[in-house]
Amino acid sequence: MTDRLNRHGTDCTADYWSRLFSALLITLSLSLLMIGAVQAADGMAAADLLERISPVGRVHVEGEAFIEAAASSAAEEVVEPIAAPTPSRSDYPNMGVSSRAIVWVLAQLHLFFGALVLAVPLFVLTIELVGVATGDERYDDMAHEFMKISLTGFSITAIFGGSLALALFLLYPDLMSYMMHVFGAQWLVYAGLFFLESFFLYTYYYGWNAFRYGNLKWLHLTLGLLLNGAGMTIMVISNSWATFMMAPSGVNEVGAVVGNIWEVMKGPLWNPINLHRFIANIAFGGAVVGAYAAFKFLSTRDPAKRAHYDWMGYTSNFIAILAFLPLPFAGYWLMAEIYAYSQQMGITAMGGILAWLFIVQAVLIGTILLAGNFYLWAGMSRTDGSNRYKWLIKYIAFVLVVCFLIWVTPHTLMLSASEIAALGGSHHHILGPLGIMPAKNIAVNLMLIVTFLSFQLYRRSDKVATVAWAPVGNALMVAIYVVAVANIIFAGVYYGYFTNTVYKVGSSVMQVASTLLVIIAGIVIDSLMFRNAKTLPSHWGRIPDRAQYALFALPIAFTWLMGLMGYVRSSVKTHWHVYTVMKDNSPDNFIPTIAYAGNMITLVTVLFLLCVLFMFWVANLSGTHQPKPVAEAEGGAA
Amino acid sequence: MSQPAERSGGNVLIKTLVFSLGLTLVFTLVTYLLPQVEGEAPMETQFDLSSMTMDDFVALGENLFNNKGTCTLCHKPAPLGRAPDIQGMDMVATSAKRLADERYQGEAKDAAAYILESMVAPSKYVVATWGKKGSNDSESPMPAVDKAPIQLSNLEMDAVIAYLQAKDGNEVTVALPSPEAAAKVAAVDTGAATGAAPAPAATAEEALGKYACSACHAMDSADTLVGPGLVDVGARLAVDEIRQSILDPNAVLAEGFPAAMPTDFAEKMTVKELEMIVNFLVEKK
Predict the structure, then answer these.
(1) Which residue in A394, A498, A546, A586 has the most C-beta neighbors within 10 A?
(2) pLDDT value at position B43?
């Protein structure tokens, strides 16, 4: 106690509080001041500018009256909206290498790391909160370790972000000039937020052990919350640039700004992208740190370390799969909004040249679901109670594989004349119907439902319900599964094959609702049914080594999937920089072949993998101590 | 013999990398198995109108329908289509039925005008069950093809009409474009360089502002700026004279004034804008 008191006899804790509180206040005041300055600058551009330049318009010939009309005409010219530029091909700088390829690689790497460093603090904060709520310090330590391994990622994100900005300004000067004109002082807010984020990041990470208990822990949690707040704001601001380029708002038909910054930002696709990226980032972040845990698990034979990294890997997989389950629904909302904004854009993505990419997407999501399920099944070996449920695994695997095959069945086939003759048409009479969306919607929803079933069985495997109504609860759960599966199949078949195209879209809402019902009902019923349940022993570290490879498959598939969908999102604009208002006249204004896109995505995935290895290596360096060389030690002793 | 607590990190790293790179290559391989198609940006084509025959014009229309017009994205045979399969329908006969439909609220009187109207103002008549969700078939999901992102010119839309008429053996009623018409189209296209939206003005005052008439003409006095004041123009000139002075300002010059008025209003103004301005000026007596 005495060392916690300073020489004036006051508590150091209170001193820390007041200092940190003051620091926070100063930081927040600075940010408010900055936002105020930005708003002032914005206002200046519109109204005050007129006042500032008006004396020029009052110049007149001596002896004659002021020409007021000329003054007002000059003022009108100042506020005349400026159309989007129309650069010709020669206006694009040529470095001898495809400008699009350069920007593609840098943008994708920036986005990968951006996603990672936005997601990790989010679930780190959640894990820290769980630690506070349960009083189990292992959660706190794991959360700290997650932060440690991703810390370098912030710098790497900034490096790629800066490189991307440089590349864009050099290679696409007209586009960037226009974007600067449209978003104006918002760029300053964006830049300013990095200072805030850095402040919160470093105080959060380096203050972890300094603010570990009591009230200081809450201060630490607050810092984590502010870190996430700054990060999320950065994300939604940068999302607004991407969505403006896809579906511009706040500008007229020729791209001249006619609305304020808020109207420019809140385009029809902004919130769908915000939600989709928010959820996807968590799944992605969970998968990447899971790979770290898997690597550490495989690298040691120490049972204590294996138990720790097994638990860490399990938690990461839990985060990744839990975030992944609602992701298709967020994607569905995004796609529905794209169709609502421009049916043409929607069809370009789903039914036009980019439609084939969704076959690749099916392979990737199938890989993710198979890997996630496999890890859960393998993890059941941690507890003896799982024997009750293992018989179900083969049926789950069967459903997953059949649905996966349906999902990857293409609809339109590239056939020669003889093949068409042999097939009896351009579509196979059995496989053809499996190629269209209704069949795929059924497959996806069933895959999600059985994945949740795997998860539910895993969670139940170390527990025995003690409540009297457990049999009823189980029967209710089974009934919900049966009804949901029947509804998904019925809605898909009836509305998908026997009604107009318009109703197909409506039917998928019923299917999504069924899947969500299973997930929500499962969580609610299990949390009530297994309250005060008898817990069976669980042995962390008792999992086959091969299960860890599922934890490597997840981030690889997630990374590739992000690269693929980013390419689709950007390509739906076709030959437009900003859809409908600024044409892309660069040499790269075409949609490349799928194989070219595949090469690019593989390139960025491998580069990301290497950068992540560097990040983990640096994180491990901090805990490594070089032993003093023997000869030197002896010499010193002599 | 006891095993060491730590495994060789190098071995694990190599296994991990081989597995990860192998999986990445599997995904890449999938992309190689799929059809390889490039999505070219639409090219700005130059038409040699002096030698163009009607067959060429129809072929141009078919090309536009399948490519630049992006019509086939939605107008496909059931069950894939998101719009009526107009390539599988006789559009001349279908147009007659639609014009006779009591739900029809447009201004077209014949097939060519109906097809044109459905391209530039698709919501004028929405075929039952094909409207936007929740609009009760009052709003079409189809974009106006003369606007971005499709941006067909008048000449190109005429070509599409010619194709849709000719494909079922009907008489083509749109005229073959002349080189002069193409020049006018080109002149109109240059208007997009300014920040003003090409959307037509809604009122006479808006139209006067859009074409900056008051920059040279005082509207509420007889004062001379660059051109004569227009406060009493309705008393000085008849309707046709006002119209002529806008469309062809150098035909009759007001005494003492140079030929400074722009001569391209005929290309820039819509008919409605012109009439609004003329009617507004006629009232100024």
Answers:
(1) A586
(2) 72
**Token pair recorded at residue A283:** 């799944």
pLDDT attached to residue A239: 95
Q: Which of B27, B149, B150 sits opposite A560 (nearest CB)?
A: B27
A275-279 contacts, C-beta under 8 A, 24 or more apart: A275/A330, A275/A333, A275/A334, A276/A327, A276/A330, A276/A331, A276/A333, A276/A334, A277/A115, A277/A235, A277/A239, A278/A232, A278/A235, A279/A323, A279/A326, A279/A327, A279/A330
Task: State the DSSP code for A593.
Answer: P
Contact check, Cβ <8 Å, B39/A591: yes
Inter-chain residue contact A575 with B193, CB threshold 8 Å = no
How would DSSP label each residue in B235-284?
A: HHS-HHHHHHHHHSTTSSPPTT--S-S-S-HHHHS-HHHHHHHHHHHHT-
Burial per residue of B17-49, b for 16 or more beta-carbon CB atoms within 10 angstroms, e otherwise: eeebeebbeebbebbeebeeeebebbeeeebeb
This prediction's pTM: 0.75
Q: Which of A293, A297, A299 is nearest to A320 (CA)?
A: A293
- Amino acid at site B268: K
Distance from CA of B171 to the nearest CA of A (A): 31
C-alpha of A343 from chain center: 25
* Residues in CB range of B163: below 8 A, 6 or more apart: B58, B59, B60, B61, B62, B64, B65
Q: Do B129 and A589 touch (CB under 8 A)?
A: no
| A30 Cα to chain B: minimum distance (Å) | 37
- What mean pLDDT is predicted for residues A123-143? 92
Q: Report how far residue B160's alpha carbon sits from residue B119's, in angstroms, rounded to the nearest whole number.
A: 10
CA distance linking residue A459 with residue A457, whole number of Å: 5
Name the residue facing A359 among B34, B193, B199 (closest C-beta): B34
A367, A576, A592 member nearest B149 (Cβ): A576
Residue A255 near residue A178 (C-beta atoms within 8 A)? yes
| DSSP 8-state secondary structure symbol assigned to residue A536 | P
Distance between CA atoms of residues A358 and B272, nearest Å:
47
CA distances from A265 to A107, A183, A236, A239, A318 (A): 20, 8, 9, 9, 34
Looking at this predicted complex, what is its ipTM?
0.80
Query: Chain A residues with CB inside 8 Å of B149's CB?
Result: 342, 344, 574, 576, 579-580
Best residue of B2, B19, B32, B37 to probe chain A, by most A CBs closer than 10 Å? B37
Cβ-based neighbour number of residue A45 at 10 Å:
14
The yes-or-no verdict on residue A446 having pLDDT over 80 is yes
Which runs of consecutive H residues, i.e. helices, occur in A461-500?
470-497
For residue A146, the surrounding DSSP H or E stretch is helix A137-171
**CB-CB under 8 Å, B12 with A299:** yes
